Amino acid sequence: MSGMRTEVAIVGAGPAGLLLSHLLAQDGVDSVVVERQSRQHVEARIRAGILEHSTVQLLDAAGLGERLHRDGFEHRGIYLQWPGERHHIDFLDRVGRSVWVYGQTQVTKDLGRAREADGQRILYEVSQTAVHDLESDTPSVTCVDRDGADVRIDAAVVVGCDGSFGPCRAAVPEAVRRTWERVYPYSWLGILADVAPSTDDLIYAWHPDGFALHSMRSAIVSRLYLQVPNGTDVETWPDDRIWAALATRLGHGQDGWQLTPGPITEKSVLPMRSYVQTPMRYGNLFLAGDAAHIVPPTGAKGLNLAVADVGLLAPALVALLRKKDTALAEAYSDTALRRVWRCTHFSWWMTTMLHTNGDPFDEQLQLSQLRWVAGSDAGAQGLAENYAGLPIGF
Ligand SMILES: Cc1cc2nc3c(=O)[nH]c(=O)nc-3n(C[C@H](O)[C@H](O)[C@H](O)COP(=O)(O)OP(=O)(O)OC[C@H]3O[C@@H](n4cnc5c(N)ncnc54)[C@H](O)[C@@H]3O)c2cc1C
Hints:
By secondary structure, the protein is of the alpha/beta class.
């Protein structure tokens, strides 16, 4: 068994784990990251793509914003749509904050490069990750490295940034942890297409056939989604069927608007659920990002919540390890969960407002809600404030 010693052992090199190691290093705190996948795999995973205002601010402050501002796109709002109507909700006008379109793949690459330049210790392609002695002052992480050697990492603190399937959340004893879950009766069929977006801002469309979303990744790559039933086999959706459904639901021809199809380069089905596990700290184990909570992607919050958690956790760990000041670490779970539940509610609200479920009464309530959000200052303001994002620590 080869042994390593560090101050913070981080499980998972997704956005939460990489950003945490970066922020800690800026304050001189040493960390070691272990990751199940290869670096190439982590950097190629097509996932989130909308960065809210506070995420951009934090990445800028951490010296990670250069490529984001060069290659990303600032968006001032979204369109809300239902048959025959499309309304723009302008975030900048309403709350003075914008969002940026910049893929999670790019955020992860920027983080990967920054960590590499810093000489960060990251063990990719590990297996059998386990966490130990979390209630003690000497917690540890063990795993098997890519060459098959046993590794043990001794630390002062372990942070679970290992997403929804990692071992850390399950390491909190059943008697201590509490979970909340909502599984939705539909999924998203998502595509990436090599075609310029047919819209300047994202279009969120309610339609009797089901929800559709027109998003984008760049000036030449579009990202689009269709609501589909759970258990949908992607093979039953050939490209022509996808483009035809998108044209119908997004309103091709409505007021002269055209949806331009193009070659589809990626296609997958994403089930949707809300999940929260509390507390986000147990002894010397802290949870951050998807390890503690999952939101359906309708509110574009998953990646942003991971960043917000880490934005709170990094200074808390610096204070704990450098000054023996426990206040921020003790407050971490409660402080983070305030925002987690706000984003959980917003994501649930956007999801249930926009996805059809076959119930005619619910359809009328959804349309009424959409008309109110688009037509009233109070409704539009609420959506804008939540979508563009509340401050970290809200
Ligand atoms: C298919 C998909 C599509 C998504 N689309 C959107 C979207 O459109 N918009 C949006 O806002 N959000 C989206 N999300 C959510 C968003 O991507 C996540 O919220 C975000 O990645 C959270 O970052 P994280 O670092 O907490 O977790 P993750 O990115 O999941 O990172 C966790 C890391 O831990 C590693 N790991 C797991 N187990 C172990 C182990 N045993 N040992 C070591 N390492 C381990 C994983 O390999 C992974 O690299 C999507 C998620 C998925 C899965």
